[in-house]
Amino acid sequence: MKKLSTTALVIAAGMASSAQAADFEVSDNTTVGVYGEFAPMLVSEKDGAGESRSEFTDNGSIIGFSVDQRLDNGVTLFGVAEFEFLTDNSDNDFVFDAGYIGARGNFGRVQLGNFDSVYEDLIIDATEVAELAEITDESVMSEDNQVAYYSPSFNGFSFRAQARYMGDGDDNAIAGQDSAEVGFSLAGGYSADNWGVYAGYDDRGSEVVDQYDANGNVTGQDYADNGTYGVSGIYGIGPVELAAKYAIQDLEDNDPAGDDITYAALRGTVTYGPGDVYAAVQEVMHDNDDVVADRTEFTVGVSHGVADNLDLWAEAGYFDQQNDAGDVMGVGAIYEF
Fold first, then answer.
1. Range of the domain at 98
2. What is the pTM of this model?
């Protein structure tokens, strides 16, 4: 879904609860929050044969709960639990989406649980702007079993580090594995009033991926030996915000797509008062483009706030796939509380 501007994201990434949250003081030092978002939409998307298929659906409505407990030493303990549901009743499941506990203070912030990758916060989210028609992301580790540290700002400089633990008894571990795997991510950079530059690396060390023989045939699965790294930048002037990303995802040995995939993206957002006009373009380049074709992805959209907590949006995305598969148009609404 549509991301915060990078300036806001650097300040708020990982913080507990929505700007529209209803907060309740249950004691002098403890605040409980309830927040949510309803996201109905009407979508037309092309399938693998190039045929358009339309549906009225939901973009992932959520309800969340947060708690902050302020200690006498200046440290705040916090916890978040967030659940996703579909308002169109196509799926009656009430699914856990994110949850973590942690502590924050002058030292920065530490948290553990299920939450966005620190690489995603600073690199991917710089150019990912759409609610529906998102450009393709490079691969990073999944969002479970994590512990992360977020530093305070040192005159504009900050960093964040994350580890993901996959025990040999975990449901997502490789069957028969007799040892745990730990993957690491690191990201950081410099943020000024209207610009910022960032770099990140995710070693994908606890992510299960396909393995290949010398002929490029899948032989099974194992933990990734190769990671993803990237840089991003943002610049804002008046109502205009521009961002760029350059990332390389190294592939496993003998992958038919070659040694790596490169992602080069640009994003622009113009605020016109009650809403935004936004667009992003991305080149996805495979090392072996004779096997997997390079492609150019493009998304464009507009949002309009009709009330403080209600936005309407319309988007279209074109992803340069065979038979135009995945090309999408949609309109929707977001109501937050």
1. 6-336
2. 0.89
